[in-house]
């Protein structure tokens, strides 16, 4: 059979670490999986602008404001290339946005938690970007060319963000008692959601099979989570903050930190739309999109007029 | 008034206008009509806040009392801000923002073109550096003015109304007082009447290209020279300064 | 936790909820759909701020560190406010405000009815005094709920949506922890599960009269007990506290 | 002629200090004058809520917040009875509001100045309510019954407001250097607009003739202005603030303060719509009115349904 032959060729390329490109043949499931994953990744960048955007107007120094603005701008840029990468798979950005707004497509659940103090700008950078980066570094070697290249570009900026977030936490942890309390509080609130960003345990993660075979995913959820925790625990110690997990301790045998049980009920609840800010985030996105409808229409009308003029001329 | 005092005030005018307009632009974050505009508007905000840092730092240095950019941004009162009235206008809808930025960028563009040859090295360097940024701001807002003006009937009417509403705040951009007089003599500042001529040309040209009508002459509001403001600024400042005011001892 | 500590926290819960809801209501000033509503909503705001003053003053006294009502209102941080999640929801349109106030007033009404016989004299007196005000708030918001529910198709749909949107924040009103446990034992606080039964009756009755549908059971957000909030509260606080934060030395 | 006889009877009542009531005959010009004046007065109360409303959310103490809220509530109440008084002359509140929104009807020009600091809450109470009160005390004896009775009621509350405003000024004038500076600045900004609230000089005030003959107006603009100035100058001295008028000085012969020339260009400019906040105030009013349209419609629809039900029952 034609298709079977194609599938074999496809798998051979994957096994030989040759990137799959948009014009190449690919199994329908591979395409669907990537559409879902890349667009979800793009949506996360875009929705992620909101919790950080919440603090731009109140940034406590001009330097802090500039750093935060630049970070959010980078995220919008990431959203842009990720939508472009996703579009190479034959769906338009408008379609992806519709899926987001209808709730069909998800985005990273972490953005359904509110940012309550300036220390949250530190926690988001340090933990959320930190977790994202561990995942993204691994995805630089993903099998789909456009996604892999987007990841290479994103990783460079993201590690910068993570450092900036950690700096905010460090400054506050070494600041006034109020600042230190805010930093610890931010860590308390963001720790568990951050380590759940890697998704369910491998044993509960049914989609992993093909994704690993097709090298979309290069490492498992639990492997990535462990990497992140090992790295982050030490960073917390350096600045004198306490990870809110009484079960956390170094396991000499494993060469890794052991850690406590995550609250998967909470995880699934937030994924399903019942986090503290799910509605707020989607409503915000819809409102901005609707408010901008007349602007997009005008831009299209103008572009069409210009095209006509050129044809006549 | 000494030349130094005049120059401090001049720096605050420039720095405050950039700061307040930058703060306004940053309010757009995640609210743009398309993702590309989120990026573009954040870019404008970044440039403007950057400009304000240079000018406020310089003002603090000239003053010689050890005040930093943050002291000046976060610890002055409303009646000590010398920003243009235009810069503090609320964002409104996208067209309101486009019209405001267009009018203001055209002002900064021609002002900085003129200030490039200021006798004050810092001012000259600031103008030379900012001109690149402001050229982009002017191009970006002009392009949108044209798209909206020559887009749909709805967008045409909206942007025309935005222009009309903002017009009364454009006179303020060009008002001058003793500060200008002193600094013009020293070759530091420039005659804003000259800047206005260039501004008028740019404005007329783009408005025409946008198939819009230049707003009718009307009474022009004053404010900038006397740190007089609309009620909108106080709310912006309360939010902007909150953390510095609440934790005066803290470093961030 | 001592009884005194529990009682301080209890007073903050009551006082903060009144304060934040009162601040929200005062935002309506000059924005009402008719002049009579400007008056009515200002009235509600006045009552609520008044209630918060009593409870915050009492909390300060119990604490014994000399903190006044203003110290507590103006110099605490967001994560030290124990108001209900419902009280901090933004005003939205008039229907959103009506629905929020309806749900919240019914809570206060039945809570204060129960607290009238608190063993703590101040709490009992506060409840007795506030019940009159809250009766009016409940009547006022119920009447509007009915008018909007049984008004036009547009108003029916709008107010139904408002109710649905706010529903997930109503569970928070009735959550209890150690504070309640300690104070219930002392006869100071009341069992919120009992209050909820009464609340349910009132809610059901008015919703039916308004030809509306009670929102479906859903996951209920928590916050109040741990001073956990939405992103909306921080902005409200920044504005509310600005002057006290900016001029810590000043008397007003 | 019938009308002439009525006019004579009308004037005789006026001269005998008998109030004119809604059902009484009155000359068309008397009615028009009152419609204009009372509705303008009502609009002023309503628009006046905005500059003070601007500071409720930022009131610097809970007590200050309550006092300000109560004051604004009183103003809304005054608007309400003044509209009712005006409605006795045969025009509806809706019509009056339409005249306000179309710019046909005016409101007191003082509300077209912005309130920029908390001291402005003092200045508005002390000066603006202070000026209003001088006028209103005089209007308690106005010839039209409903207007006169509304004024009696309003005057009681207004003098309370004036005292509260003065208290704010006194506290700030005796406060920190920043507070004192704010208080002086507020006085500087509100002084001239306040004394122009009484309107043009008598010599430039063409409408006064009939209004005085009909005892709508009991004292002239200049008389009222002088009263206000005489009273206020001393109050400023007590709290150590300086009236921003170099020409101000006590005139032993007149037994009054002499004062400098007012800027009538500014006055007329603001009346004509070019003050700093004219557009803002009207747009705010229109927006609130438009946003509330669906609510008013619902209330009417509900009331009609109830009426039908009662008829059926």
Automatic annotation (TrEMBL), chains A, D:
Keyword Oxidoreductase among record annotations: yes
Molecular function GO labels: phenylacetyl-CoA 1,2-epoxidase activity
Superkingdom per UniProt: Bacteria
Gene3D superfamilies per record: 1.20.1260.10
EC number: 1.14.13.149
Alphabetically ordered keywords of this record: Oxidoreductase
GO cellular component, as recorded: cytosol
Pfam families: PaaA_PaaC
EC primary class: oxidoreductase
BP-aspect Gene Ontology terms: phenylacetate catabolic process
PANTHER family, per the entry: 1,2-PHENYLACETYL-COA EPOXIDASE, SUBUNIT A (PTHR30458:SF2), PHENYLACETIC ACID DEGRADATION PROTEIN PAA (PTHR30458)
Name under which the protein is recorded: 1,2-phenylacetyl-CoA epoxidase subunit A
Organism of provenance: Vicingus serpentipes
Gene name of the encoded protein: paaA
UniProtKB/TrEMBL annotation, chains B, C:
Pfam annotation, one family: PaaA_PaaC
Gene Ontology biological-process entries: phenylacetate catabolic process
Transmembrane regions listed in the UniProt entry: none
Native source organism of the sequence: Vicingus serpentipes
SUPFAM superfamilies reported for this sequence: Ferritin-like
NCBIfam families: PA_CoA_Oxy3
Gene that specifies this protein: paaC
The protein's name in its UniProt record: Phenylacetate-CoA oxygenase subunit PaaC
GO cellular component: cytosol
């Amino acid at each position: 059979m034609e298709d079977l032959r194609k599938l074999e060729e496809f798998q051979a390329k994957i096994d030989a670490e040759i990137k799959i490109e948009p014009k190449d043949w690919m199994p329908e499931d591979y395409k669907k999986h990537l559409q879902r994953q890349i667009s979800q990744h793009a949506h996360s960048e875009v929705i992620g602008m909101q919790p950080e955007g919440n603090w731009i107007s109140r940034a406590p120094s001009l330097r802090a404001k500039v750093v935060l603005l630049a970070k959010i701008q980078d995220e919008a840029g990431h959203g842009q290339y990720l939508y472009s990468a996703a579009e190479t798979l034959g769906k338009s950005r408008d379609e992806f946005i519709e899926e987001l707004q209808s709730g069909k497509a998800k985005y990273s659940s972490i953005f359904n938690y509110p940012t309550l103090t300036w220390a949250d700008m530190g926690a988001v950078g340090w933990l959320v970007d930190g977790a994202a980066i561990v995942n993204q570094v691994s995805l630089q070697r993903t099998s789909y060319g456009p996604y892999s290249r987007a990841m290479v570009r994103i990783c460079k900026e993201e590690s910068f963000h993570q450092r900036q977030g950690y700096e905010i936490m460090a400054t506050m942890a070494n600041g006034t008692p109020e600042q230190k309390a805010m930093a610890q509080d931010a860590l308390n609130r963001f720790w568990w959601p951050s380590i759940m960003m890697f998704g369910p345990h491998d044993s509960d993660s049914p989609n992993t099979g093909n994704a690993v075979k097709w090298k979309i995913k290069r490492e498992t959820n639990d492997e990535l989570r462990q990497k992140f925790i090992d790295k982050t625990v030490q960073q917390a110690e350096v600045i004198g903050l306490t990870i809110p997990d009484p079960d956390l301790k170094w396991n000499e045998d494993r060469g890794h930190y052991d850690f406590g049980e995550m609250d998967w009920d909470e995880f699934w609840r937030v994924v399903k739309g019942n986090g503290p800010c799910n509605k707020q985030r989607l409503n915000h996105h819809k409102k901005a999109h609707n408010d901008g409808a007349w602007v997009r229409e005008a831009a299209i009308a103008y572009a069409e007029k210009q095209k006509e003029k050129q044809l006549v001329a | 008034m000494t030349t130094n005092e005049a120059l401090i005030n001049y720096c605050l005018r420039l720095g405050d206008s950039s700061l307040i307009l930058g703060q306004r632009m940053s309010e757009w974050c995640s609210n743009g009509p398309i993702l590309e505009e989120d990026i573009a508007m954040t870019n404008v905000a970044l440039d403007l806040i950057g400009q304000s840092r240079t000018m406020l730092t310089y003002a603090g240095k000239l003053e010689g009392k050890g005040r930093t950019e943050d002291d000046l941004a976060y610890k002055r009162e409303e009646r000590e801000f010398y920003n243009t009235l235009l810069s503090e206008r609320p964002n409104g809808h996208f067209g309101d923002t486009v019209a405001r930025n267009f009018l203001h960028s055209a002002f900064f563009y021609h002002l900085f073109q003129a200030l490039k040859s200021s006798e004050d090295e810092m001012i000259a360097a600031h103008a030379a550096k900012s001109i690149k940024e402001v050229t982009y701001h002017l191009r970006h807002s002009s392009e949108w003015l044209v798209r909206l003006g020559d887009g749909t009937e709805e967008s045409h009417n909206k942007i025309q109304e935005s222009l009309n509403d903002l017009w009364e705040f454009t006179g303020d951009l060009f008002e001058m007082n003793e500060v200008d007089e002193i600094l013009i003599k020293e070759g530091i500042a420039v005659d804003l009447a000259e800047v206005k001529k260039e501004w008028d040309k740019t404005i007329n040209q783009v408005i025409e290209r946008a198939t819009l009508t230049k707003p009718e002459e009307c009474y022009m509001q004053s404010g900038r020279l006397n740190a007089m403001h609309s009620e909108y600024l106080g709310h912006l400042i309360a939010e902007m300064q909150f953390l510095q005011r609440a934790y005066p001892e803290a470093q961030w």
